[in-house]
Amino acid sequence: MSKQAAVDVSCCPPLAERRLPTEAAAALSPAFKALGDPVRLQLMSMIASAEGGEICVCDLTPAFDLTGPTISHHLRTLRAAGLVDAERRGTWVYYRARPAILRQLAALLTVPQGR
Q1: Sign of torsion, CA 32 33 37 43?
Q2: pTM, whole model, 2 decimals?
Q3: Which 3 state secondary structure label does DSSP give 76?
Q4: What is residue 110's DSSP assignment?
Q5: Under 8 Å CB-to-CB from 60, ≥6 apart: which residues?
């Protein structure tokens, strides 16, 4: 899986306003697909809300009743979708959310008041 390029949020009005362009749909769909798994959604929440903006895999793994390789697979999926960045420091890997893609996804799902 290759890392997806982020789409400029200015290109994509909310779904409730106008049809999403084909290119934007193709670029953003891997992120939505990655978040469609409950474990990955929880991991994304833990990463995005981490104090200091990043979290060690050593703090993520114990939060789940899953093996280390399974957690690694889910984290790789989040990385491949462009939702998180990772940095190895010694034996540990630290993850941080990519705010731009999260803003793009949020903007796409915005529903105007009164609808």
Answers
A1: negative
A2: 0.86
A3: helix
A4: -
A5: 43, 46, 47, 71, 75, 95
Q: What are phi and psi of 20, to 5 degrees?
A: -75, 130
Residue 33 contacts residue 42 (beta carbons within 8 Å): no
> Any idea which residue has 């993850």 for tokens?
95
Helix (H, G, I), strand (E, B) or coil at 113: coil
Q: What does the radius of gyration of the chain's CA atoms come to, in whole angstroms?
A: 15
What tens digit of pLDDT does each residue of 65-114 get? Answer: 999 999 999 999 999 999 999 999 999 999 999 999 999 999 899 887 87
| Local structure of 107: helix, strand or coil | helix
Token pair of 28 as six digits: 């953003």
What DSSP element (H or E) covers 89? strand 84-89
Residues ≥6 apart with Cβ < 8 Å to 115: 16
Count of C-beta atoms within a 10 Å radius of residue 99 = 10
Neighbouring C-alpha atoms within 13 Å toward the C-beta of 48: 15
